[in-house]
Amino acid sequence: MSGRSTSAVLVLEDGRIFRGEAYGALGTGLGEAVFTTGMTGYQETLTDPSYHRQIVVQTAPQIGNTGWNDEDDESAGIQVAGYVVRDPSRSASNWRSTGSLADALREQGIVSVSGIDTRALVRHLRERGAMRAGVFSGDDLAADDVLVQRVLDSPRMEGSDLFGAVTTREPYVVPAVGATRFRVAALDVGIKSNTPRMLAQRGVETHVLPASSTIEQVEGFDGFFLSNGPGDPATADGPVALTRAVLERRIPLFGICLGNQILGRALGRGTYKLPYGHRGINIPVIEHATGRVAITSQNHGFAVEGEAGEEFDTPFGRARITHTCPNDGCVEGLAALDAPAFSVQYHPEAAAGPHDAADLFDRFVSLMAGER
Asked: For this protein, what reaction is catalysed (predicted)?
């Protein structure tokens, strides 16, 4: 293999270029460069639909040491637009491994780069913010100014409607484990595989529905779940309208991540883009009613407008900001006070990640049982 074919570059829209070695597939990957602080769970990260059209930078220096397996995917395949690592493991060693990370990236066409200074890159993104980027290798390498222009010609994340690219095309059902206590309609705007599993363990039969579903398809269920997902929540007019219809009918509702933003917009709040987002499995969240702090898994670049503990009027009664992040004051949870609805910005179904917030699924079950 020639020296040219083993080189790769990460090009940022502000002209900063990081040079390394090709890893995974060769070619071009265009998206928004973001970083995640998780030291484990790279397979779940790569297959999380919320990372659709993003180039993910791992802050942990060594990645790939446990290989790739057939059990931990959070969707049907790798979702990222590109992947950036410092030191990929040269061998995989884990009893569940069925292959290597590098092989999975190659087989699924994910253009990646290794051997760059990810510490310098993360500092740059923290100072300048998440931005458009491209990973280029093989025959797609070109002069620096040509590559920068390719990045500048790519779409921005603001205003991007991405959930339509990751939603299920047909409804499907995940049965309850044991006796069925409740039936839930889950709107798939990027749902992770572990969410229906968490519900199933609590006796919930989950009907996963396409993002274009109507209120007629939701009526008759015991509850409504709004999933995580990618893109700008300001583009989610259809899911927001459906959520308003659910609120009008007082169907118990639980949302996470993008679902939190959709509920926020349904309640009349605005959303905005964070400078570099929250991505990792070690992010603290305060629940204001109890003072309890949970360490959470998060993956979001947008947030709901609001202040800690704030109450506000909505078309469906009063609502409250229930959770915030102490790092930056970002809204991490909402609840309607006069309707059976609540949401969080983080991932209580975290895999890999902490389980501090898993009891939120129990709260959803209690809501469907008529307990407030």
From this structure: hydrogencarbonate + L-glutamine + 2 ATP + H2O = carbamoyl phosphate + L-glutamate + 2 ADP + phosphate + 2 H(+); L-glutamine + H2O = L-glutamate + NH4(+)
The SS3 of residue 92 is coil
124 as an active site residue: the answer is no
Burial 228-266 (b: 16+ CB within 10 A, else e): bbbbbbbbbebbbebbbbbbeeebbbbbbbbbbbbbbbb
CA distance 50 to 80: 9
Q: Of these residues, 32, 207, 257, 332, which one is catalytic?
A: 257
Helices (H), 7-117: 42-46, 101-107
Binding-site residue numbers are 50, 229, 231, 258, 261, 299, 301-302
Q: Show the domains of the chain with their CATH numbers.
A: 7-153 (3.50.30.20), 163-369 (3.40.50.880)
Catalytic residue status for 278: no
Q: CA 279, CA 246: separation in Å to the nearest integer?
A: 30
DSSP alpha helices (H): ranges in the chain?
3-6, 42-46, 101-107, 118-128, 144-152, 163-166, 194-200, 215-218, 237-248, 258-266, 359-368
* Number of helices (H), then strands (E), in the chain: 11, 20
In the set 32, 44, 74, 349, the catalytic residue is 349
- Which residues are annotated as part of the binding site for L-glutamine? 50, 229, 231, 258, 261, 299, 301-302
Mean pLDDT of 260-272: 98
Region 251-271: mean pLDDT is 97
The verdict on whether 349 is a catalytic residue reads yes
Structure confidence by residue, pLDDT tens digits, 14-38: 999 999 999 999 999 999 999 999 8
